[in-house]
Amino acid sequence: MKKSGWQIVAVIGSFIFIFVACQRKETQPLQTEYKLNIPPGFPMPKIPADNPLTAEKVALGRKLFYDPQLSNARTISCASCHILEHGFADTARFSRGDKGQIGQRNAMSLTNVAYQTELFWDGANPSLEKQILAVMLNHDEFDIDITEVENRIRGDESYKPLFQAAFNGVINITTITQAIASFERTLISGNSKYDKYLRGQAILTPSELNGMRLFFDEKGECFHCHNGFNFTNFKYHNTGLDSVTTDEGRYRTTGIEEDKGKFKTPTLRNIALTAPYMHDGRFKTLEEVVEHYNRGGKNHPYKDGDIFPLNLTAQEKQDIVNFLKTLTDEEFINNPAFKKP
Predict the structure, then answer these.
(1) How many CA atoms lie within 13 Å of 164's alpha carbon, on the beta-carbon side?
(2) Does 96 score more than 60 pLDDT?
């Protein structure tokens, strides 16, 4: 039967659609969903709708995380201040920039950072993607122009297949930060000696058990702020570090007077590895930290009401330190998927 002109056009149009679709499949490789290894008792972290987690992004982000090209002088990378062996925290009291600039704070651990909804000690950034961008632009950190970052990565041939797989070849500051954030969201730790004890797979020593009892004592200080699966309430507190605040902390972000001297409660997971402690790294050891809380901190008009003298004995203080050491996750810090590719 003879076809009409419209029928011929329809047939040709169908062939064109199929051809274009096939071409699209060739240029837009299928993404592989990345399945997070969620420990028992942990919730699923919220993944941004505009940056779904894929294996291709994670692989790309891992390479970028360790790449010093992201800093102006090409001397530091994300991994310089977030060291795997130290629970992705910094060993320097004040984290240094790409030209040796001394910053104002100690870089926080990235352990379980996927669960953080506000980043930095003062919660200034609402997402990992924006936090990474802030580090690049900060004069005390990477101190680099966005265009320069994009040009460097575009000029590196080793990145082209990775960006092709992860973002269909698009290389810009958005895809760069999304990839790094994707890798960081995989840094989940929940298999410490303490976790194994809860599952009946490990035995705590008498000292560790007493330290755990003291830690979770409702009359004490620890549990009020360091609670839940990640040993943090994700809130901000003034713990009486100073009588007069030199770093205004949360106040920088909110402008609320009562927020002066308040800093985010950090996770205690892998805490034995993340020295020095506090936002300014003033304490070198866990013993010093415990002694600070045992004394009840210094007087400050906005000091948290849960900070008061504990009057612990020397043995009790050591027991708490020993318990804190049970939060170290050896499998986490030795995971080959987190190491430099």
Answers:
(1) 9
(2) yes
Enclosing H/E stretch for 263: strand 263-264
Q: CA–CA separation, 260 vs 252, rounded Å?
A: 8
Distance CA 101, CA 46 (A): 34
pLDDT of residue 14: 45
Q: Supply the pLDDT for residue 219.
A: 76
Task: Read off the amino acid at residue 200.
Answer: G
Task: Retrieve residue 149's tokens.
Answer: 């970052």
- Yes or no: say if 300 and 240 are a contact pair by the CB < 8 Å rule: yes
CATH number at residue 250: 1.10.760.10
Peptide bond into 276 cis (omega under 30): yes
| CA dihedral for 14, 18, 23, 28, sign (positive or negative) | positive
Reply yes or no on whether the pLDDT at 1 is more than 60: no
pLDDT tens track for 27-59:
455 789 999 999 999 999 999 999 999 999 999
> What gap in Å lies between CA 110 and CA 50, rounded to an integer?
22
- The pLDDT confidence band at residue 228, using thresholds 50, 70 and 90, is very high
Domain assignment present for residue 13? The answer is no
Q: Are residues 237 and 285 in the same domain?
A: yes
Contact 112, 232 (CB under 8 A): no
Tell me: do 313 and 224 sit in the same domain: yes
**What letter represents residue 240's amino acid?**
G
Q: How crowded is residue 331: how many other Cβ atoms within 10 Å of its Cβ? A: 10
Domain end, chosen from 170, 188, 206, is at 188
Q: Which of 186, 188, 89, 177 is nearest to 136 (CA)?
A: 177
Query: Residue 20: pLDDT above 70?
Result: no
Q: What does pLDDT average to over the chain?
A: 92
